[in-house]
Structure formats: C-alpha cells, structure tokens
Amino acid sequence: MTDSIMSKAATMEIPINSNGDTGTLPEDDSLEQAAKLQWSLDEKVGSSRGTRDLQQVMVSGPNLNETSIVSGGYGGTAEGIIPTSSIKGPAVRYNAEFNKRIPVTGLGSNMHHSSSSSSLTAEEMTRGVAVEKLESVKKWGLNTYKCTKQMISERFGRGSRTVDLELEAQIEVLRDTKRKYENVLRLARALTNHFYNMVQTQHALGDTFADLSQKSPELRDEFGYNAETQKLLCKNGETLLGAINFFVSSINTLVNKTMEDTLMTIKMYENARLEFDAYRADLEELSMGPRDAVAMARIDAAQQQYQVHKEKYERLRSDVTIKLKFLEENKVKVMHKQLLLFHNAISAYFAGNQQQLEQTLKQFNIKLRPPGADKPSWLEEQ
Q1: Is pLDDT larger for residue 375 or for residue 262?
Q2: Whole-angstrom Cα distance, residue 299 to residue 301?
Q3: Which DSSP letter does residue 72 get?
Q4: Considering 152, 273, 297, 356, which has the largest number of Cβ atoms within 10 A of its Cβ?
Q5: 251 burial class (0-12, 13-18, 19+ CB within 10 angstroms)?
Q6: Phi, psi dihedral angles at 351 (to 5 degrees)
C-alpha cells in the first residue's frame, strides 16, 4: 500500500504559472499519509545505521566526472546533456571524516601554490634582512662597549695601551707642523687681502690723477706723472698678487688636502689601536678565568677577534708610516718651490724691478688672468 501511495505521489504533476512559480496545490491526504509513513520507517532504522549510511554515501558517492548536467527540462532531448568531464576547472574531492572540500592538483592549485611560495620567499627575504641588521647592530653595540671600557680604563690609568714611540713622535710633529702651516696660510691670505685693497686704491688714485690732468691745465704735467706712476704700480701689484695667490693656493692644498688625508689615516690607525687593546684586554681577562667548556668557547671566539683586530692595527700602522714618509718628501719639494717664488716676487716688486718680477712668474709657470676675465659675459648677465 505504501509503494502504491509513493508511486502516485511521484507521478503527480506540479503546475507552473507563467512566471515560473509553483501554483497552488490542492490538499491531498494520500500524499501527507505517504510522507508520515516514510518518516516512521526512517525512525526504525536507528541512529547508528543512519550515520554509517551517510558516511558511506559521502565516501562512495557518484563521481562528478561520470555524472551529467541536464540543461533542458523534464523530458528534454539528449542534446541538452553536457558531460561534466568537459568542464575545465579545479577538481574537488570530499573527505568524509571532516566533510571538507580539498582541492586536487590542477591549474588553480598550481596558481595558489606559486603565489604562496612567492609570498613565503618575500617573507623569508624580509626576515633575513631583519636578522642581518639585528646582528650588525649587536656587533656594533658590543664593539662600542668594549672600546668605551678600554678608553675609560686608559684615561684613569687602570688599563694598558699599545704604544709605538717612534710613530707617535712623528704623528705629533705632523700635527705641530700643520698648526704652524695653518698660521702661515692665514697670514698669507691676510697679506693678499690687504695688498689687493692697496692695488685697488692705487688704480682709483691713478684714474683721479688722469682726470685732474685733463681738467687742470696749469698742473697737467704733475698730475700726468703721478697718474702714470700709479698705473705702473697697479700693474706690478697685480703681477705680485698673481704670485701670492699661487703661493696661497699651494699652501692650502698642502695643509688642507695632503696633510689632512694623512691625519685621517692616523685617526683610523688610532681607532684600530683602541679596538686592538680592547679585545686584547678582553682576551686576557677571559684567560685568567675558569677553563670549562663554555669558557673555552668564549676564549676561542675572543682569540679570533683579537687576531682580526691585530691584523687591522698592523696594516694601518704600516699605512701611516708610509704616508708620513711620502708627506715629508712632498712637503719639502712644495715648500722649497713656493718659498723661492714668494721671496723673488716680493723682492722684485719692492725693488721696482718690473722685468725681474715678470721673469719670476715665467720661471714658475704662473699665468695671470687678463683684466676683466673674471667678469661674466653679457650673455651670462641676461
């Protein structure tokens, strides 16, 4: 009886209106009774069997590749059937235990894995850079602490320092020489400024004498003589200014470039000496302590750092020695030439020997700029 009722219910037609909505069905007692009967039969099966059947259906359900999708309505033609095997896309399998969708290897999973690997690579690179920076900061902090400790110990007389007496004496002589040459440079620049102002005054005075010579007929000759004299002195003064400017430029190069470069190397050498003594004191302190496994590992690490800073110290000490030697030779050559130039130019100018003054500039290959050469052209002024 139940089978007949269910078959009757299954063969009933559901009318559909013009909008695609289901129409109102008349109440059918047989359909309701069939539903109640089916519900009572399901309750008799039991919860354990229902759970087992559900898991079996989920595990051994229909293969998606073997099913079909009907595009038409009930009773449509076979042309409306589309096999799912022709649909391209990531396949999906079901896990019955966790009831999850797990993507199977395919195009979509490859894209997902490639994006994940690229993000992991970027993350690893960022982490590596951060770790490297952290290590560099850590090493810098440790080195600064050791050097500060060594500096304080030396200042208060509690720590020992490595001293090269001969090299220290040469460095002190260089610093004293640099201070004296800086004084010579300052005075030479002051002389240049004063003499330049005097030459400008002579030039203006000569122009005034020449103008008065034209406007004062009774004193034309006297104003004319003085105008010519001032113009000659102005010309010789400009020649002397060229020699003094060359002297100042050469001294400035010697003091602020050559000597300064050597002093920078000396500063690096002194810092290396401080680091060397700091790691030497650290190694000596560790060597006086216990000799267990941890202490021996620290001693080995300290020994390696000590050797590294010792080699750096010795290399910079050699560089300083070589630079001091070359600096002394260069200083003698430069100052010999510049002092001779300064003496000859000053003597020729104040002796009134214009020919000797010009010969001095030719001897040292000094070329004077023509008048007005330092002024911008009319195109640059626009």
Answers
A1: 262
A2: 5
A3: S
A4: 273
A5: buried
A6: -85, -5
**213-267 confidence digits (pLDDT tens):** 898 889 989 999 999 999 999 999 999 999 999 999 999 999 999 999 999 999 9
CA gap 342, 371 in Å, rounded: 23
d(CA 282, CA 300): 12
> Most distant CA pair in the chain: distance in Å?
159
d(CA 287, CA 282): 9
Nearest to 11 by CA among 3, 21, 19: 3
In this structure, what token pair is assigned to residue 188? 């030479």
CA distances from 1 to 4, 40, 44, 181, 235 (A): 5, 15, 18, 127, 140
The per-residue pLDDT for range 194-207, each reduced to its tens digit, is 999 999 999 999 99
Dist CA 128 CA 121 (whole Å): 10
What amino acid occupies position 15? P
CB distance 182 to 252 below 8 Å: no
HEC secondary structure over 77-141: CHHHEEEHHHCCCCCEEEECCCCEEEECCCHHHHHHHHHHHHHHHHHHHHHHHHHHHHHHHHHHH
**Distance from C-alpha of 314 to C-alpha of 253, rounded to nearest angstrom:** 29
**What does the alpha-carbon distance between residue 318 and residue 91 come to, in Å, rounded to a whole number?**
73
Euclidean distance between CA atoms 6 and 323, whole angstroms: 111
* Tokens 């110290």 -> residue: 313
Q: Report the helix count and the strand count for the chain, using DSSP H and E.
A: 10, 4
Cβ-contact 159, 153 below 8 angstroms: yes
Lowest mean pLDDT among 144-153, 212-221, 231-240, 338-347: 144-153
Element (H, E) at 174: helix 165-215
Q: Compute the residue count for the chain.
A: 382
* Strand-strand pairing, 68-70 and 81-83: antiparallel
Distance, in Å, from the CA atom of 62 to the CA atom of 263, rounded to the nearest integer, reads 87
> Which residues, at least 6 apart from 261, have a Cβ–Cβ distance to it below 8 Å?
323
- Any idea what DSSP says for residue 308? H
Q: Using CA atoms, how far apart are residues 129 and 135, in angstroms rounded to an integer?
A: 10
pTM: 0.60
Beta bridge partners of 92: 103
Return d(Cα 260, Cα 264) in angstroms, integer: 6
CB–CB of 14/25 below 8 Å?
Answer: yes
